[in-house]
Amino acid sequence: MAPATSEVISTIPTFKADFFESCLSGNVLTFGTYTLKSGRQSPYFFNAGSFHDADLLSAIATAYAHTIIGFLDAHRDIPRPDVIFGPAYKGIPLACCALLELRRIDRTTWGKVKYSFNRKEKKDHGEGGGIVGAGLQDANVLVIDDVITAGTAMRETIEIVKREGGKVVGFVVAVDRMEKMPSANDDDGVPRPSAMGQIRKEYAIPTASIVTLDNLIELLHDKGDEKDMERLKAYRSRYLASD
């Protein structure tokens, strides 16, 4: 009789694994060598702009919705969002599709929640202003975006919402790269927080992501893709954030 073998069971939730497979099939997540704005050479690249067909948009909407539901369940002290906000430009379709999926899952909770986004340049005719969709005055605002790198866009969004009279109660992104913020000497070996970690520290705003770099490494392991997995592990070892 052949000896029994132990089966490795993934700890990744199904919706994350499905999201990962959709990213691969749609070339949203690709592996190779990519130069980031920071100058780092990354072994992977995530482009939310490639979610441009209905099946892929449905996949990311489902993943955002389940992430948001889990995020709010884990942070019961967070006020229920009045508005889902998508920063221009990539955040706009993400906020809209996520809200539609949330309503499909739980109409009672999400049916009257609104969406909103900013203009890059304020409009001086028609309805005018820099916000499209729901107004933000006195609103609890949940922000959805794709990937956070330096944190500049997160800070800008916080200021936009504050200026409009609202309050950011959370950030949810697609991918948490888990890497420390860049410095002038990026290979100095000095521990530093990630952009998301710095935002949590500065503004006391909780954050969540559909997947993290750790998740990507585990999912590649489950697929038997040892080459890309080892490259991501090496990148993580070199740039892992202190938070």
Distance between the termini: 49 Å
Radius of gyration: 19 Å
Count the DSSP helices.
8
Number of strands: 8
Largest sheet properties: 6 strands, mixed
Strand order of the largest sheet: 5-4-3-6-7-8
Structural class estimated from helices and strands: alpha/beta
Q: Secondary-structure element sequence? A: HEEHEHHEEEHEHEHH
Observed structural traits:
6-stranded mixed β-sheet; disordered N terminus; two-stranded antiparallel ribbon; 243 residues; alpha/beta; globular
Can you offer a commentary on this structure?
The structure is a single chain. The protein is an alpha/beta fold. Helix content is 40%, strand content 23%. The chain contains eight helices and eight strands, in the order H-E-E-H-E-H-H-E-E-E-H-E-H-E-H-H. The strands form two sheets. The chain has a six-stranded mixed sheet with strand order 5-4-3-6-7-8, with helices on both faces. Strands 1-2 form a two-stranded antiparallel sheet. Helix 5 links the parallel strand 6 (140-147) and strand 7. Helix 1 packs antiparallel against helix 2, helix 2 crosses helix 3 (91-105) and helix 7 (213-223) runs antiparallel to helix 8 (226-239). The chain is globular and about 45 Å long. It starts with 13 loop residues before the first helix and ends with a helix.
Topology:
Blueprint: H1 14-25, E1 29-35, E2 41-46, H2 54-74, E3 83-85, H3 91-105, H4 107-110, E4 114-123, E5 129-133, E6 140-147, H5 152-163, E7 167-176, H6 195-203, E8 207-212, H7 213-223, H8 226-239
Parallel strand pairs: 3-4, 3-6, 6-7, 7-8
Antiparallel strand pairs: 1-2, 4-5
Helix pairs in contact: 1-2, 2-3, 7-8
